[in-house]
UniProtKB/TrEMBL annotation:
The chain crosses the membrane at residues 254-276. Residues 34-145, 146-243 form the Fibronectin type-III domain. It catalyses: L-tyrosyl-[protein] + ATP = O-phospho-L-tyrosyl-[protein] + ADP + H(+). It comes from Neovison vison. It is found in: Cell membrane. One of its GO terms (biological process) is axon guidance. This is receptor protein-tyrosine kinase. InterPro entries: Eph_TM, Ephrin_rcpt_TKs, FN3_dom, FN3_sf, Ig-like_fold, Kinase-like_dom_sf, Prot_kinase_dom, Protein_kinase_ATP_BS. Keywords: ATP-binding, Cell membrane, Kinase, Membrane, Nucleotide-binding, Phosphoprotein, Receptor, Transferase, Transmembrane, Transmembrane helix, Tyrosine-protein kinase. Its EC number is 2.7.10.1. One of its GO terms (molecular function) is ATP binding. ATP binds at residue 359. Residues 327-432 form the Protein kinase domain. The keyword S-adenosyl-L-methionine does not apply.
Length: 432
């Protein structure tokens, strides 16, 4: 049937249009055709998986070797005309192609995503005449799920009493992000006492913090399906920038004397720099600077690094270059004018490991910012006094450019006194 011959007594017949014999069919076998589309396709969505069931085609094409193939397409939000293959991340049970049953389970789909599934009925001759008439399709939207964790949380600005946080959207939102939840607590509390802040934006300012205190921050996102996991902890220490000069209470007078003494010391240092600058007459030669160091019978004169045409020359003279491999940055403790301020460790070969403070020069700096940054190191490198922070060295041969100083565990003196207002006697304060 469905064949003909132009010669009487021919050993084989030619199939009619639209009918075929499979490669392994004998010449004596009848011609057949591809099956029609499966019937009654239904879908059942369960979060990020879909179960499909259907009925056999009405017309099998005259063959018994019928099977089914599943095609999965991921479509754009609100636009089902823009679809692309799902890829290898989707799994099919029992299999995707060559199904002998009329049902399949599809798992590992993305949440809150549009999909189109096509079920193709095939037999031994389908490859000779593939046609959309042999398939049936259904479009579904998977349910929303809890979002993935947030990969990156940053401290954009740190002050004495606040921290400005920002973060990225989760890699897999799995739905519409309704809000973000920020959990934070003092590091030494170990989550025994924490606070929660909620916001719809991807940034927030955490205020009312204690100065010179280490805080731990976590952020997570929420969809209609619930909260995702918290991000990795971000540890930030509020910095030492004062918001007021004189504190309240009975010890304000003592504190005023202490701060006034610090101001006087700063004025003296500034005067020394001004005098030095005038003496140097803005010399650009290293020889003149060297001569000034030995004036007044060995009394050391501090040289203004801005008198050098090349700031690198001043750094080489007054600061030691440190190999970046000797430095280990542990955490961010503040944000300065030029970039982040971190705490870490310095291990120079032949010396014991020490705690250090690390000032980094932010990316995208200008030539002026780099000059000012290095000049700060040149100034610090000329001081050798127990009451002045000690410069360990600099990193200028790779990025980021860094200034390495001794680590002040209790912060600056004025901030330490402010935090401990009322705890010291007058004798102790004079000793400081």
């Amino acid at each position: 049937p469905h064949s003909y011959s132009v010669w009487e007594g021919a050993t084989s017949c030619t199939c009619d249009r639209g009918f075929f014999r499979a490669d392994n069919d004998a010449a004596s076998m009848p011609c057949t055709r591809p099956p029609s589309a499966p019937l009654n396709l239904i879908s059942n969505v369960n979060e990020t998986s879909v179960n499909l069931e259907w009925s056999s085609p009405q017309n099998t094409g005259g063959r018994q070797d019928i099977s089914y193939n599943v095609v999965c397409k991921k479509c754009g939000a609100g636009d089902f005309s823009k679809c692309r293959p799902c890829g290898s991340g989707v799994h099919y049970t029992p299999q995707q192609n060559g199904l002998k049953t009329t049902k399949v389970s599809i798992t590992d789909l993305l949440a809150h995503t549009n999909y189109t599934f096509e079920i193709w009925a095939v037999n031994g001759v389908s490859k000779y005449n593939p046609s959309p008439d042999q398939s049936v399709s259904v479009t579904v939207t998977t349910n929303q799920a809890a979002p993935s964790s947030i990969a990156l949380v940053q401290a954009k600005e740190v002050t004495r009493y606040s921290v400005a946080l920002a973060w990225l959207e989760p890699d897999r939102p799995n739905g519409v992000i309704l809000e973000y939840e920020v959990k934070y607590y003092e590091k030494d509390q170990n989550e025994r006492s924490y606070r929660i802040v909620r916001t719809a934006a991807r940034n927030t300012d955490i205020k009312g913090l204690n100065p010179l205190t280490s805080y731990v921050f976590h952020v997570r996102a929420r969809t209609a399906a619930g909260y995702g996991d918290f991000s990795e902890p971000l540890e930030v220490t509020t910095n030492t920038v004062p918001s007021r000069i004189i504190g309240d209470g009975a010890n304000s007078t003592v504190l005023l004397v202490s701060v006034s003494g610090s101001v006087v010391l700063v004025v003296i240092l500034i005067a020394a720099f001004v005098i030095s600058r005038r003496r140097s007459k803005y010399s650009k030669a290293k020889q003149e600077a060297d001569e000034e160091k030995h004036l007044n019978q060995g009394v050391r004169t501090y040289v203004d690094p801005f008198t050098y045409e090349d700031p690198n020359q001043a750094v080489r003279e007054f600061a030691k270059e440190i190999d970046a491999s000797c430095i280990k940055i542990e955490k961010v403790i503040g944000v300065g004018e030029f970039g982040e301020v971190c705490s870490g460790r310095l291990k120079v070969p032949g010396k014991r490991e020490i705690c250090v403070a690390i000032k980094t020069l932010k990316a995208g700096y200008t030539d002026k910012q780099r000059r000012d940054f290095l000049s700060e190191a040149s100034i610090m490198g000329q001081f050798d006094h127990p009451n002045i922070i000690h410069l360990e060295g600099v990193v200028t041969k790779c990025k980021p450019v860094m200034i390495i100083t001794e680590y002040m565990e209790n912060g600056s003196l004025d901030a330490f006194l402010r935090k401990n207002d009322g705890r010291f006697t007058v004798i102790q304060l004079v000793g400081m």
